[in-house]
Write a structure and sequence with these properties.
115 residues, mainly alpha, 5 helices
Length: 115
């Protein structure tokens, strides 16, 4: 059976040395009361942070997977645009000769993908 005790330390505005001093005093009293048990302490914010460690790792993994997915999608879209431009190369050439601007040709090619 593990023995434990919860103590609230008011450390706002104090340095780490004062908290260490309080922990030393608590350890001394612990050893007087429970000489056969070892003194182990932990802070509640560290315990709570350890609860969410797996969620943080999962979130990083999901972000990496989403970035890879978006990258692959962009490569596929680029390949599709290049294929369409190559397929319509003669049409684009004729339109350029007849005076079409680059913006008009870009709208012509991207109209299929946007709608």
């Amino acid at each position: 059976m593990e023995q434990s005790i919860a103590i609230k330390l008011a450390s706002a505005g104090k340095d780490a040395e004062s908290v260490k001093g309080v922990l030393t005093k608590v350890e001394k009293i612990w050893k007087e009361i429970f000489p056969e048990k070892t003194f182990n302490y932990s802070f509640i914010d560290d315990n709570v942070a350890s609860f969410y460690e797996t969620e943080r790792k999962t979130a990083k993994l999901m972000q990496a997977a989403m970035a890879i997915t978006i990258f692959i999608s962009c490569i596929g879209l680029f390949g599709l645009v290049m294929f369409t431009a190559e397929k319509r190369r003669r049409e684009i050439g004729i339109r350029k000769v007849l005076g079409a601007s680059v913006a008009n040709i870009t709208v012509l090619l991207t109209k299929e993908f946007v709608t």
